Amino acid sequence: MKTRRESNLSTLKTLNKLWGQIVTLESLISTMTESDKLVMDQKEALGMYDRYSSEYDKNTLQTMVPIVNHFLSLIPPLDSSSIVHDNACGTGIVTQTIIANMELKTLQDDQPSKLTFHCTDLSPDMIDKLSAKIQKFGWNNVTATVMDASQLTFDDEWFTHSFTNFGLFFLPDPVQGASHIFRTLKHGGISISTTWGKVGFLASMRKADELTRPDLPSITDTFTDNWTQESFIRSVFEDGGFAGSHGIVTFDRCETSLQANSIEEHTHSFWTLFGYSDKGWTEDDKKKWVAAFVEELSKSDDCYTDTVGICHVRMSALICKAVKF
């Protein structure tokens, strides 16, 4: 049995250890830079997608399909045994693209090919839009559920594939999100996660913000450099479980563009998407901002109009492929 003196010494050692951990944590917080923070607060991101859900397919489908097709080319073909998690699915563009590809293959091969999709997203509005698609197109192999990618409720080793298209960087704890991807994948399962390696409108938007409201932080401050860096994304997935003998992480890139009928249409879309009005910007601010953004974007090498008059803004997707061993 410990004496009182020994018990006091043990308590003191424990308190010293806890104090050391607190000091270390405070030190880490004090040295945290802007690039260590989230791309956008999850609540703010949820509001953004709820505002944008009705226009999401119209404004992003042509941008996303080339990316989805590209990352599908990096993995073995999906088949009827595949169980796919469309994680942070939005309106289900990944699922929709895969189904279209499978239907085309069926027509070519005269062999029916159906796989199972479980689509989840934190935004009820996005899930409502996807549910309408499921009903419209009769996708009886697709389910759509409101679910937080940080708190997946699926069983362990459930999926053969997990696709997270431009969603992981919104999570408060992306490592936790990656760990749920790892946990829910079968051994040999494949995760694909995408982020933006290049955002062609970013510099023009930042300049328009500065010219219109120099008294306010730029909306573009929510975009951070870490999610454009392979080393950072690799660390997220390796810390989430895909490391050593448990998995491997590799990268690829895909060029694409945002498309609209005009620069002005792009600009009005961005105003809505990023919720300027909700952040206190006035209608007078909007007029000045739109004019400034149009002028800056028209001068950018990342903006061009094609032969049929469609205005493109260049974007580049960074694709992270993680395999669970």
TrEMBL record:
Enzyme class, first EC level, given as a word: transferase
Protein name in the entry: Methyltransferase tpcH
GO biological process: methylation
InterPro entries: Methyltransf_25, SAM-dependent_MTases_sf
Taxonomic lineage of the native organism: Eukaryota, Metamonada, Preaxostyla, Oxymonadida, Blattamonas
Source organism: Blattamonas nauphoetae
Residue intervals of the Methyltransferase domain: 85-189
GO function term, MF aspect, one: methyltransferase activity
Record EC number: 2.1.1.-
Keywords, in A-Z order: Methyltransferase, Transferase
Transcription regulation in keyword set: no
KW DNA-binding (keyword) present: no
